[in-house]
Structures
1.
Amino acid sequence: MENCLFCKIVSGEMNTDFVYSDDKVAAFEDINPQAPVHLLIVPRTHIEDLNHLEEGDGDLIAHIYQVAKKLAAENDIAESGYRIVSNCGDDGGQTVYHIHFHLLGGRAMQWPPG
Ligand code: AMP
Ligand code: ZN
């Protein structure tokens, strides 16, 4: 997808350091971290947001959660706890319209979220 920041990042065009990469997803540090651990897990295919998920995307979403679990363990937040967030649309706070999952940890999270 032309002019999509996350398409450019996952394709390697931006020379981003990946903390995880496979044929389906790439994960990297958020440029504006909101917690001591703040990673973004991003599918390599361009899906605009959660509203654009299709039936066949189930395996991809399950895979993203498996990657999140692995990255949580690697970053020593598996036991202390963490949060996985996918913002959708303006009210959800989405700013990049290529679906992605935030993995946040290393501090106590608030509820309800702001
Ligand atoms: P959202 O607001 O849920 O769409 O999340 C987009 C996230 O992408 C924000 O947390 C930004 O800080 C992050 N972000 C924007 N540009 C970059 C970049 N070049 N590298 C890493 N993270 C980025
Ligand atoms: Zn994209």
Note: DSSP finds three helices and five strands in the chain.
2.
Amino acid sequence: MENKEKQPLVQVKNLCKYFKVGRHADLKAVDGVTFDIYKGETVSLVGESGCGKSTTGRCMIRLYEPTSGQVIYNGKDIAKLTKAEQKEFCQQVQMIFQNPYASLNPRMTVKEIVGEALKQHGMPAKEVDQKVEQLLETVGLNKDHMSRFSHEFSGGQRQRIGIARALSVDPEFIICDEPISALDVSIQAQVINMLKELQEKRGLTYLFIAHDLSVVKYISDRVIVMYLGTMVETAETEELYSNPQHPYTKALLSAIPEADPDKAKASKRIPIKGEIPSPINPKNCCRFAERCEYATEKCFQEMPELHEIAPGHKVACHLT
Ligand code: SF4
């Protein structure tokens, strides 16, 4: 809570990213998203594929130019950085990508992949070697791996290489774009634990992007649930899991497998009917209306505003 008195490290303000898909058609991938991230926090963005979570992350690292809205990093609008500030931003903000199979260049050795950014920053070759060795140890690999190619590694090991690459320039903020969704369940926990340890040791701040709520509970301080380009609910993790309010969040939570057989018997899965609708020219009403079992006429006519129902807990639903 003391965090909240400080200035956020990242401020996303009314961010929109539309893609033109025809003369009169806009694919509204992100449509008015606003949130803050404080230093040392992990904020998770969760929703089905196509909800705009990865596009939000990509706008925050300038891989996409937003259609409108702002991303403020350390008090500066990232669209207005000078050349020197851009260089600093690129060092301070890194991304770990979803697919460890596609995000590593198959023609480069591990040493080249992890050391690439260090070389670009002018580090002498000998120091690069030492730093790469240290980084590999940090992520649970070793110096014997340096001369190998990425295809010689398992999925979990490849993601460790991706994490070592992100850490190489000593960033303070890392966007983790579904870093574990391509990995076996047994490996997922190892990678999550490693990210948590790294956060504690290095004081990192994370935006963690995931498609379901099961994996983010143990790593997040706060969770944002997105649906079709908009935020539908956000709260501190404990509050969101114990007191979900939006019908979509409730359905996502009900889909989490329960390990305890007694609890599993008692819990009821809330099905979400139909498919996620097209984000092309969406209607100005509740975007979840077509799939919501509580939808009323108002839901098909008016877009619900995201409003605070308890300190730090916001919901976009006409019923709250
Ligand atoms: Fe369901 Fe209406 Fe709430 Fe949308 S606003 S989630 S349709 S009840």
Note: The longest helix spans residues 185-202.
